[in-house]
C-alpha cells in the first residue's frame, strides 16, 4: 500500500524510537516497546515543523487569528499546510472535533472550504463568532467607536466583576472599575450587534494583560501585589511559614490604552481582509461535549479531520481561562465544564457510565461495548495502567488522580477515534497533533498508542511526523527520574 508523502523534506532516524519506557526498568515495558517497533516505519522527523507551527506562537502576529490569545491552539499556517497536503477542496467538508479558538474553521473559511467544529468552552465560541464576522464589520462604525473611546470617559457603574473564587482580587481596583464601565457602555452604544460583539471579544482578550495573573500551564500565576497573595502571605508569616513569592508583571497597562491598541489593530486587519474576501463557504461551531455530540452526527460526511485534543498534561482549561469564563458569566457551571472536558486533569471523574447511558439512549449500546472492548483489551494501555499503579504503590506518583486521568484519557479518545471513523467518508485523512508524556518515570507514547487504538477502530496508519525539537520533563520528574526527551508528533491516519 502506498503511503501518503505529506512533506518532501523528511528524514527517518532510528533514534526516533526509544530504548526504554520505564525508568530503571521498574515496570514492564514490552507492549510499549512493541508499539515503537511496530510503527517505527511511520516515524519521520521533518524540518517542516517546529514548536511555533504546532502551537499558538505563530498566530500571535497573524491577521484575524491574533485577536484573542489561545495558548493551547495550533497555528493557522499548520492548518493551511495540512489542508493543502490532504488535498481538501471546495465542496469538501472538514471537521475539527476539538476546535478551541476555531483556527481550523477560520482557515477553512479563508480557503473557501466548508467546516464543522465542536467546542465546549464559551470564550472559544465568542472568539469564533467575533472573528468569523470579519468580512461583515462596518469599518466606518468601528472607526466611529474608536473616536468615542478616545474622546469619552464612560460613566462609572455599580456593577462588579462576577468573580469566581479562584479569580478574586485578580485586578487592581481601578482596572476592574474601568473594565466594567466599558463593558456596560458598549452594551448601551447605538451601534450594530456585530460591533458590540467585537467589543466584547476585545475586552475579553485583554483581561489577562490588565490583571495580576499570567497563564502558566496548569494554573494562573499571581503577581505578588494581588490581595490574594498578600493576604495568604500574612497568614503564612503568622504561622511561621515562608511567604510565597509571586511574579512581577511590571506596570499594568491602562484599560483605555490597551483597548484602543487592540481596536486599532483589528480595524487594520479588517480593512485588509475586506479588500480580498475569500470564496463563499459555510462553517459551523457546535457547542457541546464531543463525547456526546459526535455519536449523534450523521455518518460518512467528512473529507478530513484536522485537530489537536487537550494533551494528557494535567492542564485544566477552566482554571487557565478562569478570568474569561467569569467575565462571560460562568459561575457554578464551571465545575460541570471541568468535568465535561476530555479527562486531561487529575480532577476529572470517570465518564464511562455516563457514556454507556448516552449510547443506550441513542440506541447504540452494542457500539459502546465494541469500543470499550478495544480499550480494555489494548496491551499497551493495560501495561501503562499497571505500571502507574505499581509506581503509585512505590510512592513515585505525586497525585493518585494521574492513574484515573491516563486511563480515562485514552478510553475517551478511543470513543472519539471510533466516532470519527464513522462520520468520515472513504478516503478521508485524519490528523492529530499531540505530545508524548511521562509520569513517575513511565513514558507514555501518546502517538503510537493513539495510532494503535485508531487502527483498531478501522483507520489505516500513514505517518507519524516528529518535530525536531523534543519535549522536556517537569523539574520535579527530572530531579527524581532524570531528563527524558519526548516526541512531539503529528499522527496521520486514513479511512480507506
Supply Rg.
24 Å
Q: Please list the strands of the largest sheet in the order they lie side by side.
A: 1-2-12-13-9-8-3-4-7
Which class of the largest domain in CATH terms? Alpha Beta
Shape label: globular
> What is the helix tally?
19
**Per DSSP, what share of the residues sits in E-state strands of 2 or more residues?**
5-15%
The count of strands amounts to: 13
Note the gap between the termini.
11 Å
The mean pLDDT is 92
- Biggest sheet layout: 9 strands, mixed
Helix content: 40-55%
CATH homologous superfamily placement of the largest domain: Vaccinia Virus protein VP39
CATH topology of the largest domain, by name, is Rossmann fold
List keywords for this structure.
Rossmann fold; single chain; globular; nine-stranded mixed β-sheet; disordered N terminus; two-stranded antiparallel sheet; 496 residues; alpha/beta
Task: Please tell me about this protein's structure.
- The chain has a 9-stranded mixed sheet, sandwiched between helices.
- The protein has 496 residues and is an alpha/beta fold.
- It contains 19 helices and 13 strands.
- It has 2 domains: 12-121 and 280-494, 3-Layer(aba) Sandwich (Rossmann fold); 139-275, no CATH class.
- Helix 1 packs antiparallel against helix 16 and helix 15 packs across helix 17.
Amino acid at each position: 500500500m502506498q503511503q501518503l508523502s505529506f512533506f518532501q523534506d523528511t528524514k527517518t532516524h532510528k533514534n526516533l524510537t526509544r530504548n526504554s519506557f520505564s525508568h530503571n526498568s521498574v515496570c514492564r515495558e514490552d507492549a510499549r516497546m512493541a508499539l515503537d517497533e511496530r510503527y517505527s516505519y511511520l516515524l519521520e522527523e521533518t524540518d517542516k515543523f517546529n514548536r511555533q507551527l504546532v502551537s499558538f506562537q505563530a498566530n500571535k502576529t497573524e491577521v484575524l487569528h491574533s485577536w484573542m490569545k489561545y495558548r493551547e491552539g495550533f497555528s493557522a499556517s499548520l492548518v493551511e499546510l495540512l489542508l493543502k497536503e490532504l488535498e481538501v477542496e471546495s465542496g469538501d467538508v472538514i471537521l475539527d472535533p476539538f476546535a478551541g479558538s476555531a483556527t481550523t474553521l477560520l482557515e477553512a473559511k479563508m480557503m473557501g472550504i466548508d467546516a464543522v467544529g465542536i467546542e465546549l468552552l464559551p470564550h472559544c465560541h465568542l472568539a469564533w463568532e467575533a472573528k468569523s464576522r470579519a468580512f461583515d464589520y462596518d469599518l466606518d462604525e468601528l472607526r466611529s467607536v474608536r473616536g468615542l473611546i478616545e474622546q469619552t470617559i464612560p460613566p462609572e457603574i455599580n456593577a462588579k466583576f462576577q468573580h469566581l473564587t479562584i479569580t478574586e482580587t485578580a485586578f487592581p481596583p481601578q482596572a476592574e472599575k474601568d473594565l466594567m464601565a466599558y463593558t456596560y457602555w458598549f452594551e448601551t452604544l447605538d451601534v450594530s450587534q456585530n460591533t458590540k460583539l467585537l467589543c466584547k471579544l476585545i475586552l475579553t482578550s485583554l483581561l489577562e494583560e490588565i490583571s495580576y495573573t499570567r497563564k502558566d500551564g496548569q494554573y494562573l500565576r499571581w503577581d505578588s501585589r494581588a490581595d490574594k497573595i498578600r493576604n495568604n502571605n500574612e497568614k503564612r508569616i503568622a504561622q511561621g511559614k515562608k511567604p510565597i513569592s509571586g511574579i512581577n508583571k511590571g506596570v499594568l497597562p491602562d484599560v483605555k490604552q490597551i483597548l484602543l491598541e487592540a481596536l486599532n489593530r483589528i480595524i487594520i486587519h479588517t480593512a485588509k481582509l475586506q479588500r480580498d474576501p475569500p470564496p463563499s463557504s459555510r462553517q459551523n461551531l457546535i457547542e457541546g461535549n464531543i463525547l456526546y455530540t459526535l455519536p449523534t452526527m450523521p455518518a460518512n460526511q467528512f473529507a478530513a479531520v484536522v485537530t489537536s485534543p487537550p494533551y494528557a498534561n494535567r492542564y485544566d482549561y477552566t482554571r487557565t481561562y478562569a478570568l474569561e469564563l467569569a467575565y462571560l458569566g460562568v459561575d457554578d457551571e464551571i465545575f460541570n465544564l471541568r468535568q465535561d472536558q476530555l479527562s486531561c486533569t487529575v480532577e476529572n471523574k470517570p465518564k464511562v457510565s455516563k457514556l454507556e447511558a448516552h449510547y443506550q439512549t441513542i440506541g447504540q449500546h452494542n457500539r459502546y461495548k465494541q469500543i470499550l472492548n478495544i480499550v480494555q483489551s489494548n496491551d499497551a494501555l493495560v501495561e501503562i495502567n499497571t505500571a502507574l499503579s505499581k509506581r503509585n504503590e512505590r510512592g513515585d506518583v505525586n497525585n493518585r488522580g494521574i492513574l484515573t486521568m491516563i486511563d480515562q484519557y485514552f478510553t475517551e479518545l478511543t470513543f472519539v477515534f471510533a466516532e470519527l471513523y464513522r462520520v468520515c467518508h472513504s478516503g478521508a485523512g485524519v490528523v492529530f497533533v499531540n505530545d508524548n508524556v511521562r509520569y513517575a518515570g513511565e513514558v507514555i507514547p501518546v502517538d503510537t498508542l493513539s495510532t494503535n487504538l485508531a487502527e483498531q477502530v478501522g483507520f489505516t496508519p500513514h505517518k507519524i511526523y516528529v518535530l525536531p525539537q523534543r519535549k522536556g520533563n517537569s523539574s520535579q520528574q527530572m530531579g527524581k527520574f532524570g531528563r527524558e526527551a519526548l516526541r512531539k508528533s503529528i499522527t496521520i491516519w486514513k479511512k480507506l
